[in-house]
Amino acid sequence: MDMRAKEFWFVVGSQFLYGPEVLETVAGRAQEMAEKLSKVLPYPLVYKVTAKTNKEIADVVREANYDDNCAGIITWCHTFSPSKMWINGFVDLQKPYCHFATQYNREIPNEEIDMDFMNLNQAAHGDREHGFIGARLRLPRKIIAGYWQDEKVQKRIGDWMKAAIGVAVSKSMKVMRFGDNMREVAVTEGDKVEVQAKLGWQVNTWAVGDLVREMNAVSEAEIDALMETYKAQYDVATDKLDHIRYQAREEIAMKRMLDREGCMAFSNTFQDLYGMEQLPGLASQHLMSQGYGYGGEGDWKVSAMTAIMKAMGEGGNGCSLFMEDYTYHLVEGQEYSLGAHMLEVCPCCAAGKPRIETHHLGIGMNEKDPARLVFEGKEGDAIVVSLIDMGGRLRLICQDIHCVKPIMPMPNLPVARVMWQAEPDLTTGVECWITAGGAHHTVLSYDVTAEQMKDWCTMLGIEFVHIGKDTTVESLEKELFYNDIAWKLK
User: Fold this and answer.
1) How far apart are the first and last CA of the chain?
2) Side-chain half-sphere exposure of 489, counting CA atoms within 13 A
3) Which residues does residue 388 pair with via DSSP β-bridges, in sequence order?
4) Can you name the residues that pair with 267 across neighbouring β-strands?
5) What phi-psi label fits residue 297: left (phi over 0), alpha (psi between -120 and 50 degrees) or beta?
6) Residue 397 to residue 454: CA distance in whole angstroms
7) Percent of the chain with pLDDT over 90
8) Residues 80, 16: contact at Cβ < 8 Å?
9) Is the bond preceding 424 in cis, omega lying within 30 degrees of 0?
10) What tens digit of pLDDT does each residue of 126-177 get?
11) Three-class secondary structure assignment of the chain
12) Sign of the dihedral defined by the CA atoms of residues 269, 211, 278, 271, in that order
């Protein structure tokens, strides 16, 4: 998707009671605020209307619903806007919605304040009237309060915008599955009909034979060009160049098929390599670095979530990646989780320049040792996320982690890896994750926050579970119990 075309609409509430001069002032200030905020927010904020009637509000909502470039609506009531006039519009609203409770002036002007000032600057109670109807209608919404020129407020709006972009990407998501799921694996399954109805994802299968046919059509010149890209971006640490060229052939073919079908994510499985000499390793990693989502063992849910969270990150392709918990370091006081996968970890998280290596892969029918990128992940705060199908509803589990430089070099481990400390601690975190039903595949993100994922879930109407520094097994068990009751009533 072209993220550069996305924008958010600024709708300001008022009424005719205050006369034309006040309304002109409101409109002028709204335009000024939108222009100044657009210079610091990740996406443009476009002032649309100072809404004074039921029809104006309903019209702008309908326009937003059918405008593909509009990713969400931000409202603010500069003056008092009677909330009954918002009902028809809000009932029809299909785009993410943020209620911005702010005011034009930062301070109360002690010497100048009079009744004219009070009549014009009524956000303190205008936004409360506006907020009531949101609560009454049970609208999924984000409420952000604070002065519009404060950096921390602007950052919160920007973070919400990125979550709304994740919704736009979700609604257009198409996943290409090369083959089916790994046999007998439970968590990679799910209700594709429900997911399309709820999240917008179109998840379909293409035969591995279709991919092999596409691979056979790739020219040597195309492979030569991609090899130059590999050499520029990575250190080549193998003399088996024919193995790397085979990965290039796989990448070119997969990208053609993805782009032709409008797919932003893909999955495959080592159990279905019919006609292929290598499981795509380097090929999948380099595609992910370009913003595509990936899921191993046919895991289409994590594939789509990887693409969505990449789009939610900085510049529309942030540092989010397919990940799997592999093994633990359980020395008391030094508890760490080591994440990796057989081949497919995106190099966006690399602490240094990745190396292209070839090694035997003792799983799957690989005729040649697959080429892959090997590197250590960078340090920093992050989250891991898992979307699971609970039967009747979707649950998104999010855990806070802190990625560290691996505490040992692991010279004989020929895969990309990330090491982290989990919140609230490793063993409690593991117990909470398993209690909630979290999958072994996750999306690890340095760019997207737990709050943004909560916003994303709110916008799409799915359950959100957060494991953080204060979480206990007991508190989580109670939360899940109450969630079960609440979601059954919906």
Assistant:
1) 33
2) 6
3) 395
4) 177, 295
5) left
6) 10
7) 87
8) no
9) yes
10) 999 999 999 999 999 999 999 999 999 999 999 999 999 999 999 999 999 9
11) CCHHHCEEEEEEECCHHHCHHHHHHHHHHHHHHHHHHHCCCCCCEEEEEEECCHHHHHHHHHHHHCCCCEEEEEEEECCCCCHHHHHHHHHHCCCCEEEEECCCCCCCCCCCCCHHHHHHCCHHHHHHHHHHHHHHCCCCCEEEECCCCCHHHHHHHHHHHHHHHHHHHHHCCEEEEECCCCCCCCCCCCCHHHHHHHHCCEEEEECHHHHHHHHHCCCHHHHHHHHHHHHHHCEECCCCHHHHHHHHHHHHHHHHHHHHHCCCEEECCCCCCCCCCCCCCHHHHHHHHCCCEEEHHHCHHHHHHHHHHHHHCHHHCCCEEEEEEEEEEEECCEEEEEEECCCCCCHHHECCCCEEEECCCCCCCCCCCCEEEECEECCEEEEEEEEEECCCCEEEEEEEEEEECCCCCCCCCCCCEEEEEECCCHHHHHHHHHHHCCCCEEEEECCCCHHHHHHHHHHHCCEEEEECCCCCHHHHHHHHHHHHHHHHHC
12) positive
- The answer to whether the CB of 341 falls within 8 A of the CB of 415 is yes
Contact residues for 369 (Cβ-Cβ < 8 A; gap 6+): 240, 243, 278, 358, 359, 360, 361
The pTM score is 0.95
Say if residues 214 and 253 touch (Cβ distance below 8 Å).
yes
Q: How many CB atoms lie within 10 A of CB 139?
A: 16
Cα angle 283, 306, 417 (rounded to 5 degrees) comes to: 65
**pLDDT tens by residue, 241-258:** 999 999 999 999 999 999
Map tokens 């989780």 to a residue: 337
- Model pLDDT for residues 372-384, shown as the tens digit of each residue: 999 999 999 999 9
Q: Return the closest-CA partner of residue 283 out of 233, 350, 205, 344.
A: 344
| pLDDT tens figures, 79-137 | 889 999 999 999 999 999 999 999 999 998 888 888 888 887 888 889 999 999 999 99
Average pLDDT along the chain = 95
Instruction: Note whether 33 and 74 are within 8 A (CB).
Output: no
Rounded Cα distance between 294 and 265, Å, is 6
Q: Exposed, middle or buried by CB within 10 Å (0-12, 13-18, 19+), for 16?
A: exposed
The yes-or-no verdict on residue 187 having pLDDT over 90 is: no
Q: Which residue, among 264, 337, 250, has the nearest Cα to 295 in the 3D structure? A: 264
How many Å apart are CA 290 and CA 212, to the nearest integer? Answer: 22
Q: Which two tokens stand for residue 229?
A: 């890209």
